[in-house]
Structure formats: C-alpha cells, structure tokens
Q: What sequence folds into this?
C-alpha cells in the first residue's frame, strides 16, 4: 500500500513538473482587433490570419506554444486603449492586430508605455512610425501602396488622374503622396476628398466627367466606398480609361460579391486569384486557413498571418534566450530578416518594413490577375478597360 | 456648370426621397410618443439584410423581400414598443438610453447572423443607369423615390382620415385630452410603432437596392432620420419630405460647388441654421398653429 502511494506521489510530481514546463512554454499573445463597429469586416479578416498563424506556429514550432487572447476594440480609439490595457493585465507578452491608423495610434502608444511589442498591418499612416514608439512594428506602409499605383499608372502612360479619397488619416495620406508624385511626373491631377459617411458619389463622378475629364479615376477608400464610386461611374459613364484603387479592392471577395461592378478594375494585391502558393510557408498558411475557415484565403488573412508569425518567432527566440521580460521580443523583432508571404521583411529603426512593395492586380473574368510589376505578372494588363 | 448643377439637384432630390423614407418612421414615433427611437436605423438595416438574404438565398429580387421584411421588422418594432412602454418615469430621457441599447443589441444580432461583410444588391436591373433628359440615375433610385412619395401620401391619408390615424394625431397633440376622449394611448402608440416598422421595412429594402449596407450603419441612419425629423418640425409628415429633399439637395450642391469632404457638414449647418431661425423646425407645431 505504501509503495502504491509513493508511486502515485511520484507520478503526480512528474505530471506537475511536465505541466508547469508546458505552461511555461505557452505564451499569451494579445490580439486587439475591431470585431464590431465600422471596421468589423477588416478586423475579422485580420483575426482569421492571426488564428491561422497561431495554428501553424503551434504545430510546427515544437518547443514553444502561443495562445491568442482577443479583445474587440469596437473600431473606437478609446476602446482600443482599453483593449490593450486589458490584454496587458491578462499577462500577454506582445500584441498583434489593430486596424485603422486612428485606432492603432493610441493603442500602440499604450502598448509602448506598458513595454509591450505591438505589430500591425492595419495602419499605413506614416505618423505611426514617425512618433518614436520603440516597440511598434508594421509590415506594410503607404510607400509600398504608392509605388504599386504609380508604377502601374506610369506603365499605361496615364496623363491625367482624378483621385477620389476618403478623409480618414490613412487614405488622405496615401492620396496626397500619390498626388504629389504624379504631379512631379507632369501628370494632371485633380483630387476629390469625401466624408466617409457619404453614400451617393454621383455628384463627384459628374465633376470628373464634366470638369476634370481625366483618363483615370484613382480611388483611395474602403470596400463600401469602392462600390458606391464604381456604381456612380456606371450610371454616369465618364470617358475614362481605367478605375484604379488600393486595399480591399482586388480581392476574391469583391469578385464574388460584386461580379457586375468589378470587371477590369485595378487594385493592389500580392496574390492572384485563384491563389497559388509555391513556398512551404505559403502552403502551410493556405492549408491551415482552408481547414479553419472553409474558404479561400484573402489578403487580410495573409497580412494578419505574416505579422503574427513574425511576432511568434521573435517571442520564441526571446524565450530561448531568456529575455522575454527584458525587452527581448522587441530586440528580436528588430533582428527579423526573412522572406514571407508578402515579400522580404526587415524592420527599420522606426519599426517600418523597409522592403514593402505592393503589386497591382486587375479583375478579369471573375479572376484576380497580377498585372504589375512585369516580373510578378500572371496575366496581361487590359487598358483602356472600364467596368461597363 | 449648368449641367453640373442640374444633375446635382436631381441627385439631391432622389437622395432626399430615400432619406425621407428612412425618416418617416422615426418622425411618426417621435410625433406620437415624444420618444426618439434610437434603434430606428437598425430596424431599417434589419429589413435591408432580410432583402439580402432573400436575394442571395432564394435568388429573388430585393422587392420580393418586402412581405417578409414587413412581418419581421414590424414585429421587432412592436417588440421595441413593448420594452419602451415599461418605462414609468421620465420616458423621454429613459427611452433614449433604452432604445440606444436595443440598437446596440440589434447591430450585434445583425453582425452575428450576417457577418461584417458589406452587402449590396447584385441585381443589374435595379442598378442599371437610366437617362431622363439630361439627368442620370439608377433605376432603383427612381423606383424608390416613387415608393417614398406613395408611402408618404398613404401615411398622410391614414393620419387624416382613419380612426387610428386621428387617434395618433390626438395623442401626439395632447395625450391626457386624448385619454379623456376615450382614446387608449397605449394602443395608439403600439399602432404608431407598428406603422413605423412597416415604413422601416420599405426603407430597408430600398436601401439595399441602391446602396451599400454593413452592420454598423444603423447609427448613421438614425442620426440622418433624426436630423430630418427635427428639421421638418415634430409631427409634420409633408415636412419630412421637404426637409429630406432640402438636405439631399444641400449635400449634392455642396459636393458640386465646394468640396465633397464638406457634404456631411453642410447638412449639419443647414440643421443648425433652420433651428436658429425656426426653433420648431420648418413645419413645427407653433408655425402651423400660426
């Protein structure tokens, strides 16, 4: 009987030692995401990528595990701060997520004060990397979107462009940069800013049709804006040669949801649709995504995946070195240099990914075809070509 | 320039028609109960998502969703009334908080059921551009402008000639006096919410047919409807149409003559200007009595 008790006690000791080892290797990572409010759609997309990254990391990393704790920031700056504070109180070692520069800015400030690394792909406003936040990292930026749009417009030889942009921070920043760069090249540029609340774009398109008479309409907004702008253009039919946009436009989702509006429309996209992943990382992402969400991966998931995977890898490296609580995660993030689904990622001193360059795609026959740059093109660019 | 202004006026007129359709239900409940139903925009949005479900699920045009939307949205509106009617003290203030809460619940219900994706009709027939002289618009805009006018006329006639319509006006004018005349204010308010639900159902289907919807859009719809209701003057149904068209035209002209970024601001300036000059709104009670 005594031997039995001893064996049970030994087994319990071994089990508890194993369990404590397991829990020591499981790191809580915070996800501060808009799952409700006006950014719910993009937030939900990014969250999918974060969860896929956790799934792949936990399966492949071996030694370390991550557990995601998500707090909905309700698309509101004040709630974003509260979300970061809540995550910190729950003991997260870093934060991934954030959408909308105006939400990310206060949230990453809070993370910075709390000494937590904050990584995002949801804010392209340059003030995010110009404010001296030591623990802030992002994998995409305005410059990358600008290069893609300008490159494609240069290739087609557009001589006049009307830029229609939302007055939000990120969209205004990108529109102004594109305007400046185009004007410097001698292109005639007209801009039309719009309040994010407006729904009828006909008066703007009518100005483009009757006053601007531009060759290209460049849209810098979000999904709902694009639908409104393209619809107004289909009604008024200005004599343009192309409609070009940025994020959230050249996606399989837009092709599926708005098949009549999308033909020939250009937008930034890193991958064609149907998607082809040639790297092992890409295949792991795609397989896990399809298994978890029973659908084709999109760009939001892709960005969420890359930012989170880079963070998890940095956490693992810091854990190996025993520097998690000594600023090791930020230090490892700064050392990051690797090929990812969105290209090579290396962080500059301000936390920005210095290698980020986007690609341009075009909706063609319910597919998304990469058309710029030529070395990554999966199809031929159609120009002039409009959605009507 | 003339062509630009003419098109702006036409776009503003059609936009005003859709605003009026959204604002009618809120105006009716506000007029009867002095309750600002902050969940009204969500009721409109609920109808819009029902239209989306009918189109995507059954492959039918959004207009076939009207009967289903009428039943579901009217019942939801009655549900909102049953909750609001439980308030015993300071109904004006407490109903604001309560209906705001109901709006949040409805938004999250929509989010849970239909997800956060943006939705819009895929009917090319409704989206097709039509030309009337020098004016361009979508077919759905013209159709629902007509629907808006018909509903407004029907509502006005109902208020003017039916027993319940007159009861609604009586309760709106003086609740205690109406009670002394044998009118049951509770039942009359219930009817008001029911009619507001019917109007919201039409407004939602219209919204889905020419616009873009997303779960968080309800609050913006309520604000727009509230501005129009106050601009029109409490209790004035024709005033709602005039105020809505005025707002639509002001917004379209602002885009055309100034900047599109100022569109929403122009609505607020108009709102403040009218209230500064006419505190009871364009067709408010005091003015009508005068």
A:
């Amino acid at each position: 009987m005594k031997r039995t008790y001893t064996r049970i006690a030994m087994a319990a000791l071994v089990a508890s030692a194993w369990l404590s080892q397991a829990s020591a290797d499981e790191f809580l990572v915070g996800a501060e995401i808009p799952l409700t409010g006006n950014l719910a759609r993009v937030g939900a997309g990014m969250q999918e990528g974060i969860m896929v990254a956790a799934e792949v990391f936990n399966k492949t990393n071996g030694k370390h595990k991550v557990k995601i704790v998500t707090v909905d920031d309700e698309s509101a700056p004040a709630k974003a701060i509260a979300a970061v504070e809540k995550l910190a109180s729950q003991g997260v070692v870093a934060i991934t997520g954030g959408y909308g520069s105006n939400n990310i800015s206060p949230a990453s400030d809070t993370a910075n004060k709390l000494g937590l690394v904050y990584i995002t792909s949801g804010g392209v406003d340059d003030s995010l990397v110009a404010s001296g936040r030591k623990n802030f990292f992002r994998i995409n930026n305005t410059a990358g979107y600008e290069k893609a749009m300008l490159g494609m417009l240069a290739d087609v030889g557009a001589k006049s462009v009307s830029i229609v942009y939302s007055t939000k921070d990120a969209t205004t920043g990108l529109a102004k940069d594109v305007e400046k760069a185009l004007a410097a090249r001698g292109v005639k540029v007209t801009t039309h800013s719009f309040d994010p609340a407006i729904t009828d774009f006909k008066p703007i398109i009518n100005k483009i049709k009757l006053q601007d008479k531009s060759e290209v309409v460049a849209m810098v907004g979000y999904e709902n804006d694009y639908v409104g702008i393209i619809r107004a253009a289909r009604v008024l039919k200005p004599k343009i040669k192309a409609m070009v946009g940025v994020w959230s436009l050249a996606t399989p989702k837009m092709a599926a949801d708005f098949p009549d509006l999308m033909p020939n429309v250009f937008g930034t996209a890193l991958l064609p649709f149907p998607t082809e992943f040639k790297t092992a990382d890409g295949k792991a992402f795609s397989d896990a995504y399809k298994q978890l969400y029973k659908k084709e991966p999109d760009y939001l998931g892709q960005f969420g995946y890359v930012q989170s995977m880079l963070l998890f890898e940095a956490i693992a490296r810091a854990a190996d070195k025993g520097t998690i609580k000594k600023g090791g995660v930020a230090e490892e993030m700064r050392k990051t240099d690797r090929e990812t689904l969105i290209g090579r990622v290396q962080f500059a001193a301000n936390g920005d990914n210095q290698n980020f360059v986007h690609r341009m795609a075009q909706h063609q026959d319910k597919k998304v075809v990469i058309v710029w740059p030529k070395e990554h093109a999966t199809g031929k660019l159609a120009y002039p070509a409009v959605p009507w | 320039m003339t062509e630009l202004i003419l098109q702006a006026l036409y776009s503003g007129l059609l936009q005003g028609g859709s605003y009026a359709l959204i604002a009618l239900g809120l105006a009716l409940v506000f007029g009867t109960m002095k309750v600002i139903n902050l969940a009204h925009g969500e009721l409109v949005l609920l109808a819009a998502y029902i239209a989306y479900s009918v189109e995507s699920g059954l492959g039918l045009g959004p207009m076939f969703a009207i009967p289903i939307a009428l039943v579901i949205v009217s019942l939801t509106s009655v549900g909102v009334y049953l909750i609001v009617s439980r308030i015993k003290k300071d109904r004006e203030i407490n109903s604001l908080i309560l209906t705001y809460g109901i709006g949040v619940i409805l938004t999250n219900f929509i989010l849970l059921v239909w997800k956060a994706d943006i939705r819009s009709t895929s009917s090319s027939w409704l989206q097709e551009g039509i030309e009337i002289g020098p004016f361009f618009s979508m077919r759905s805009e013209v159709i629902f402008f007509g629907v808006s006018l018909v509903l407004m006329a029907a509502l006005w006639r109902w208020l003017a000639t039916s027993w319940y319509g007159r009861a609604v006006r009586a309760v709106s004018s003086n609740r205690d006096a109406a009670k002394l005349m044998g009118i049951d204010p509770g039942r009359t308010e219930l009817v008001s919410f029911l009619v507001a639900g019917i109007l919201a159902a039409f407004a939602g289907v219209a919204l889905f047919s020419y616009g873009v919807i997303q779960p968080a859009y309800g609050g913006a719809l309520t604000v727009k409807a509230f501005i129009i209701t106050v601009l029109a003057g409490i209790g004035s149904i024709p005033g709602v149409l005039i105020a809505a068209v005025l707002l639509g035209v002001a917004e379209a002209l602002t885009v055309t003559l100034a900047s599109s970024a100022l569109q929403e601001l122009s609505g607020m300036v108009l709102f403040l200007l009218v209230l500064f000059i006419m505190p009871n709104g364009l067709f408010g009670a005091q003015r009508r009595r005068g």
